[in-house]
From TrEMBL, chain A:
GO terms for biological process: D-alanine catabolic process; D-serine catabolic process; L-proline catabolic process. Residues 1-16 form the signal peptide. Its cofactor is FAD. Keywords: Cell projection, Cytoplasm, FAD, Flavoprotein, Oxidoreductase, Peroxisome, Phosphoprotein, S-nitrosylation, Secreted, Signal, Synapse. It is found in: Cytoplasm, Cytosol; Peroxisome matrix; Presynaptic active zone; Secreted. GO terms for molecular function: D-amino-acid oxidase activity; FAD binding. This is D-amino-acid oxidase. The lineage of its organism: Eukaryota, Metazoa, Chordata, Craniata, Vertebrata. Belongs to the DAMOX/DASOX family. Its EC number is 1.4.3.3. It catalyses: D-leucine + O2 + H2O = 4-methyl-2-oxopentanoate + H2O2 + NH4(+); D-lysine + O2 + H2O = 6-amino-2-oxohexanoate + H2O2 + NH4(+); D-serine + O2 + H2O = 3-hydroxypyruvate + H2O2 + NH4(+); D-cysteine + O2 + H2O = 2-oxo-3-sulfanylpropanoate + H2O2 + NH4(+). D-serine binds at residues 228, 283, 313. It comes from Oreotrochilus melanogaster. GO terms for cellular component: cytosol; extracellular region; peroxisomal matrix; presynaptic active zone.
TrEMBL record, chain B:
One of its GO terms (cellular component) is peroxisomal matrix. It comes from Oreotrochilus melanogaster. The keyword Signal applies. It catalyses: D-glutamate + O2 + H2O = 2-oxoglutarate + H2O2 + NH4(+); D-aspartate + O2 + H2O = oxaloacetate + H2O2 + NH4(+). Its cofactor is FAD. The lineage of its organism: Eukaryota, Metazoa, Chordata, Craniata, Vertebrata. Its main location: other. This is D-aspartate oxidase.
Length: 337, 336
C-alpha cells in the first residue's frame, strides 16, 4: 500500500509520522513517500514563531478546539523528556492584551494557569485595560521539522523533491492514497475559493531579556494585525501583520516600519535590539480546516485523498490533533480495503 | 564648611546604589568609593539578582525593614531597561507551607497558587505558588551603576580598607557597605557568611523560573545565562568551587527542569552571603582623642541584598544627610 503525502511543512511531516506510527505495524506493506517542492527551512512552518495559541474564538468549530487540546497535551507530555530540546519545544508564559473586556477563549482550560491580569500588571502596558496571563508552549518550526524528518527517515519514509502537478499524476505512478497537506497552495491541486492567504511578516531580533510572549489584540484590525512579541530559543519574533488576499512573499518596508514602531511602543527596550532576520509568509487561511476524505475517480477505479490543509495562523497549535484525525481517516480507508 | 567628603567602602550592589542615592540627597558632597573588589569580582556578581522579599527572616525588628523592597518595585522599570527582565512562574513546595498568603504576595505581580495541572509537572511537590517578579543580571547592572556614578564625578579607587578609622583624616563621613568584609573590618560577631555555590549555564530556551520552597534548588533565567542553585552553608568561608556540589546542584535542577540536561558552558561561581539577624542600617560615631568620624553602616543583607538594595540605599543616604547636617551644625557652632 503506497501512500503519498504532498507537502513537507508541519502538517505534512506530522501527519506522515502519525500514520506511520499507528499503521506500520498493522500493514507491513505500508510505504510512505513525501513529495514537496519546499522543505525545511523554506516552508511556512519554518518562519512562524511557533507559539501554541489558537485564535480567540473557534467560531463553533468544536473539532478544532479538540484538536488544539490534543496537540497541547501531546506536546506537554514531551516537555519532560530528552526529546523536548531536539524538537525545539519549551514552556513559555505571557500576556494577551486588550483595550476592553472580552469573553474567555475556548482554550482557557487547555493552557496552564490561565487568569485575568491584575491592575498592577496592566500598568506595564499603557493603553491596554484588560488581559490574560497563561503558560503555553513554543514549538520552533526550524527545529521541529528537522526532528520530524529524522524520525521519518529512521522509519524508512522516502522524500522526493518534486512539485506535484495534480493528484492524477501521483495516482498514475501507482500510489493508493494521497494525503494533501499542501497548505497555502492547495488551490493549485484543486480549486478552493475558501482558501486565501493571510500574509504575515516578522522581524527576528536579538533580545534575550524578553522572557514572556505579548500578544495584543485590536478587534477592529483583526487577528495578528496588532503587535506581538514572542521569545524564541535564539531570537525574539516581532510581528503583527495579517493581510488577507495578499500573495506577496517579499518583505515590505512599510510593514517593517509598522511592526518595528508598534512593538517598540509596547516594549521600549526593543529599540536597542539588533535585527537578525526578516521573513514573510502566507498563512493558509480558511473559515475552517479542511480535514476530510475525498474519493476521486482514477482510470477504471477510485483513489482516495485525505485533505488536511487550511490551518491559518494556528498550524503548529493544531497540528497533532489534525494528524491524529487524518490517521483515523486513513484507518477507515484501510478497513474498507 | 567646605564640601563634605564622603567615602563609601564597598562596590557591590549595596555600595554602588548607596553612593548613587547619596549623590541625589547630598549633591554638594565630594564622594569617593573605596573597595578592594569591583565588578565582576564582588559578591553581587555571583547573585542571581531576584526580587523575592521572603528571603528575609521576619523577626519583629526586621519587620521595620519590611517595606525596604518597595523602592525597588518602583525602580524596576529602570532596572529592566538596563539589565533585567520580569520573569514568571513557579515556587514549589514538598510540604504545604503554613501561610496560604505570604506577606509578600502583593509585592510581586499576579500572585496565585499553582493549579493542579501545573503541579503535575512536579510529582514530588504538593503545593506551589505562581508569580512574576524582577530578575536583574548583576554584572551589567553594577557596570551601569558605576557609569552613572562616574558621570556625576564620583571617584572610585581600588583600596583595601583595614580599619574604618584609617579614613578619619581624609573623610568626614564613611558609609560602610563592606558586606561580608565587615566581619574583618569591624569584628562584627553577628555577621557570618552563608556560602552559596551556583552554576551559570547556557540554556536560552528556559524562560521561566522554578524555585523549590526550601530555598536550596532554583533555576533563574537571566539575559545571557541561567543561574542554577544552590547551597546555603552557614559559617563556610570557602570561595573555591566544589565539584561534588556542582554535580549535586545540576542534578537537583535537572529533576525540576529535565531540559537542563542539554545545558552548555557550565560556569561555577561562589559567593558568601553577608548574613545577619537584620541588616545593620544605622549611624555610629567613632572618636579617638577628640577627633570624630561619622559612620553610616549599611551591611548584612544576607540572601536578600538585591531585593532590598534600593530601599536600604535610600535609607542610608538619608542617614548620611543627617550626618552632614550634624557636621554643619557643629561647624557653625564652633564659629560662634
Amino acid at each position: 500500500m503506497r501512500v503519498a503525502i504532498i507537502g513537507a511543512g508541519v502538517i505534512g511531516l506530522s501527519t506522515a509520522l502519525c500514520i506511520h506510527q499507528q499503521y506500520q505495524g498493522l500493514t507491513p506493506s505500508l510505504e510512505l513517500e513525501v513529495y514537496a517542492d519546499r522543505y525545511t527551512p523554506q516552508t511556512t512552518s519554518d518562519g512562524a514563531a511557533g507559539l501554541w495559541q489558537p485564535y480567540l474564538s473557534d467560531h463553533g468549530n468544536l473539532e478544532e478546539t479538540i484538536w488544539n487540546k490534543e496537540t497541547f497535551d501531546y506536546l506537554l507530555r514531551h516537555l519532560g523528556s530528552a526529546a523536548a530540546r531536539e524538537m525545539g519545544l519549551f514552556l513559555v508564559s505571557g500576556y494577551n492584551l486588550f483595550t476592553q473586556p472580552v469573553p474567555d477563549p475556548s482554550w482557557k482550560n487547555i493552557v496552564l494557569g490561565f487568569r485575568n491580569l491584575t491592575s498592577k500588571e496592566l500598568e506595564l502596558f499603557p493603553g491596554y485595560s484588560y488581559g490574560w496571563f497563561n503558560t503555553a508552549l513554543v514549538l520552533e518550526g526550524r527545529t521541529y521539522l528537522p526532528w520530524l524528518t529524522k524520525r521519518l527517515t529512521q522509519r524508512g519514509v522516502k522524500f522526493f523533491h518534486k512539485k506535484v502537478g495534480s493528484f492524477q499524476e501521483v495516482f498514475a505512478q501507482g500510489v493508493d492514497v494521497v494525503i494533501n497537506c499542501t497548505g497555502m497552495r492547495a488551490g493549485e491541486l484543486q480549486p478552493d475559493p475558501q482558501l486565501q492567504p493571510g500574509r504575515g511578516q516578522v522581524i527576528k531580533v536579538l533580545a534575550p531579556w524578553v522572557k514572556h510572549f505579548i500578544i495584543t489584540h485590536d478587534t477592529k484590525s483583526g487577528i495578528y494585525n496588532s503587535p506581538y512579541i514572542i521569545p524564541g530559543s535564539e531570537f525574539t519574533v516581532l510581528g503583527g501583520i495579517n493581510q488577507l488576499g495578499n500573495w506577496n512573499e517579499e518583505n515590505s518596508t512599510q510593514d517593517h516600519k509598522t511592526i518595528w514602531e508598534s512593538c517598540c511602543r509596547l516594549l521600549p527596550e526593543l529599540q536597542t535590539a539588533k535585527v537578525a532576520e526578516e521573513w514573510s509568509g502566507l498563512r493558509p487561511t480558511r473559515p475552517r480546516v479542511r480535514l476530510e476524505r475525498e474519493t476521486l475517480s482514477h482510470g477504471h477505479g477510485q483513489a482516495e485523498v485525505i485533505h488536511n490543509y487550511g490551518h491559518g495562523g494556528f498550524g503548529i497549535t493544531i497540528h497533532w490533533g489534525c494528524a491524529l484525525a487524518a490517521a483515523r481517516l486513513f484507518g477507515s480507508i484501510l478497513r474498507e480495503q | 564648611m567646605a564640601a563634605p567628603k564622603v567615602a563609601v567602602v564597598g562596590a557591590g550592589v549595596i555600595g554602588l546604589s548607596t553612593a548613587l542615592c547619596i549623590t541625589e540627597t547630598c549633591p554638594s558632597c565630594s564622594l569617593t568609593i573605596l573597595s578592594d573588589q569591583f565588578s565582576p569580582n564582588t559578591t553581587s556578581d555571583v547573585a542571581a539578582g531576584m526580587l523575592i522579599p521572603h528571603i528575609y527572616p521576619v523577626t519583629p525588628v526586621c519587620h521595620q525593614q519590611a517595606g525596604l523592597w518597595q523602592p525597588l518595585c518602583l525602580f524596576a522599570k529602570v532596572v529592566i531597561a538596563v539589565a533585567g527582565s520580569n520573569i514568571s512562574l513557579w515556587q514549589v513546595f514538598k510540604n504545604t507551607p503554613k501561610e496560604e498568603l505570604p506577606f509578600w504576595s502583593d509585592v510581586v505581580l499576579g500572585f496565585r497558587p499553582m493549579t493542579k495541572a501545573e503541579l503535575q509537572k512536579f510529582p514530588q511537590h504538593q503545593f506551589g505558588q505562581a508569580f512574576t517578579t524582577l530578575k536583574c543580571d548583576c554584572p551589567p547592572y553594577l557596570l551601569w551603576l558605576e557609569k552613572r556614578l562616574k558621570a556625576t564625578g564620583v571617584q572610585m579607587h581600588t583600596r583595601k580598607v583595614a580599619d574604618l578609622w584609617e579614613l578619619h583624616s581624609e573623610y568626614n563621613v564613611v558609609v560602610n557597605c563592606a558586606g561580608i568584609g565587615a566581619h574583618q573590618l569591624l569584628g562584627d560577631k553577628e555577621l557570618f557568611p552563608v556560602r552559596g555555590q551556583v552554576l551559570k549555564v547556557h540554556a536560552p530556551w528556559v524562560k521561566n523560573f522554578i524555585r523549590d520552597g526550601d530555598g536550596l534548588t532554583y533555576i533563574y533565567p537571566g539575559i545571557h545565562s541561567v543561574t542554577l542553585g544552590g547551597t546555603r552553608e552557614k559559617e563556610s568561608w570557602s570561595l573555591s568551587p566544589d565539584a561534588g556540589t556542582t554535580k549535586d546542584i545540576f542534578d537537583r535542577c535537572c529533576s525540576l527542569e529535565p531540559s537542563l540536561q542539554g545545558a552548555k558552558e557550565i560556569k561555577v561561581k561562589v559567593g558568601l552571603r553577608p548574613s545577619r539577624q537584620c541588616v545593620r542600617l544605622q549611624r555610629e560615631v567613632l572618636s579617638q582623642g577628640g577627633v570624630k568620624l561619622l559612620v553610616v553602616h549599611n551591611y548584612g543583607h544576607g540572601a536578600g541584598g538585591f531585593s532590598v538594595h534600593w530601599g536600604t540605599a535610600k535609607e542610608a543616604a538619608h542617614l548620611v544627610r543627617e550626618c552632614i547636617a550634624a557636621l554643619q551644625d557643629s561647624s557653625a557652632r564652633a564659629k560662634l
